[in-house]
Amino acid sequence: MISRIVFLHIIAVAVVAIFLPLVLFWLLNSEIDQLHRAAMRAQAETLAERISVQPDGKITFNLPDSLRGLYSEAYGRYQYDIRDVDGRLLFSSHKKTGDARSDTVSGAEVTQTIDGTTVRIRVGEDLSHRDVITDDIVSNFFRRVGWITIPILLILLAIDIFIFRRAIAPLWKASEEASNIGPARTDVRLPTEQIPREIMPLVTAVNQALDRLEDGFRLQRQFTADAAHQLRTPLAILRTRVETLGNNAVRQALHDDIEGMSRIVAQLLEIAELDTLVLDPGETADLRAVCAEVVGAIAPLAIAQHKDIALKGAEAPVLIHGNSEMLQRAVFNLAENAIKFTAKETSVDVEVGDDGSVRVRDCGPGVTEAERELIFQRFWRRDRQRSDGAGLGLSIVRGVADDHAATVAVDNLPGGGAEFTLRFRLAEQGA
User: Fold this and answer.
1) Could you tell me which residue, 268 or 370, shows the higher pLDDT?
2) What is the DSSP letter of 321?
3) 399 touches 408 (CB < 8 A)
4) Worst-scoring range by mean pLDDT, 75-84, 127-136, 285-294?
5) 296 within 8 A of 202, measured Cβ to Cβ
6) Is the pTM of this model over 0.90?
7) Does the pLDDT value for residue 298 go beyond 70?
8) Are β-strands 308-313 and 347-352 bridged in parallel, bridged antiparallel, or unpaired?
9) Residue 138: other Cβ atoms inside 10 A
10) Does CATH number 1.10.287.130 belong to domain 185-278?
């Protein structure tokens, strides 16, 4: 908007910069002509006071010595003609030509009636005379004065740009607030303070639309959480009844299916909590302690599948900005995913870096380049025939990373396997 306003304003300034000097030149020239005519008329009236009519009707003109030099041919600047009503020349300051009318002479004419006798007095000034500066002022106006209008207009343009920026500053603030709105921050609204009256209806409509979206997100999240909670009880009852079955093979198969369903329900609850999580900016967590707890909790699962899991890296606490419980869920899902795909009799390494990073390495088949973004999508699975997961674990990892302003990346190791890397902000850097 500022660009369009400034562009149009530059065009307006260019047009004004061209026509304003011309208008000023015309006004200056008109004013000079008016002042000149007024001065000449005043001189003619002064000369009229020196005309008298004798009793015999003879017209006399007595020019005092103080004015005689002004109208002398030696000086040559001012001239006068005095004529009767019929146009006959009575008195003149330039006997050689007998006419004050010339291309370079400009003046004024006054008609006076003296004792019943009408005379016409014309006074002129030779504009080419060296003492005349009015014509020089006009002719030199563009060169000496007219150019100043351009920098003045440019200064006005800069001032206008400053005013425009100040006027739309509240809109920039509203734009910054709008950039913070997302699925995890549906409570943010555009500010209405100092918003221009013309923009206020739009801001109000956007805030009302955000209210409706927030209600929709809240209902969706509540439904997911409620559904997950409601499924927990039937699964617990089903697990208890399965334990009473006599056939060990059937009982184990049903038990495995129930555990898978329970895991999916638990992950749905985690997703519902992530969607409503608002981190405290001052909250910190010890990343090494979180990873140590995850490794200790998941070690029995790895051992049961004839696999190992090891904690490596930093020995001292690594403080980062984040929520310990959510960080634990993210690392647990990475470790669980690594154990699922690593080969038997191999190890999964969880390495904590002093820079706030966590690397989880496995000895599995790795991840192809085309799948490195797909694996973080909810319910995405490479093999749809597998029933040991719903494709929610890595989406939870991505959700935790997004909530913590962290990054998550995956690369293949040279010797085979995949390496998932989470990078968080160190608490010292944030402080």
Assistant:
1) 370
2) E
3) no
4) 127-136
5) no
6) no
7) yes
8) parallel
9) 15
10) yes
As annotated, the residues of the chain forming the CATH 3.30.565.10 domain(s) are: 280-430
| Residue 63, pLDDT above cutoff 90 | no
Where exactly does CATH 3.30.450 map onto the chain? Answer: 2-153
Mean pLDDT of 21-43: 79
Q: Which two tokens stand for residue 251?
A: 């009982």
Residues of CATH 1.10.287.130 domain(s) within the chain?
185-278
> For 49-187, where are the alpha helices, taking DSSP H only?
65-68, 134-139, 141-144, 149-167, 169-179
Q: What is the pLDDT of residue 248?
A: 73
Residue 117: pLDDT over 80: yes
pLDDT digits (tens, 9 = 90+) for 300-322: 989 998 999 999 998 899 999 88
Q: Tell me which residue of 80, 79, 49, 73 sits closest to 62, measured CA to CA.
A: 49
- At residue 113, φ and ψ (nearest 5 deg) are -110, 115
- The answer to whether 320 and 289 are in contact (CB under 8 A) is no
Q: Domain 280-430, what fold?
A: Heat Shock Protein 90 (3.30.565)
**What's the CATH code, domain 2-153?**
3.30.450
Nearest to 411 by CA among 374, 376, 337, 361: 361
Two structure tokens written together for 50: 């020196």
pLDDT at residue 293 greater than cutoff 90: yes
Question: Which candidate, 120, 140, 169, places its Cα nearest to that of 28?
Answer: 140
Residue 428 CA to its chain's centroid (Å): 32
Note the pLDDT tens digit of each residue in 207-228: 888 888 777 767 766 666 666 6
CA 26-31-33 angle, to 5 degrees, is: 95
- Residues 304 and 5: their CA atoms lie apart, in Å, by 71
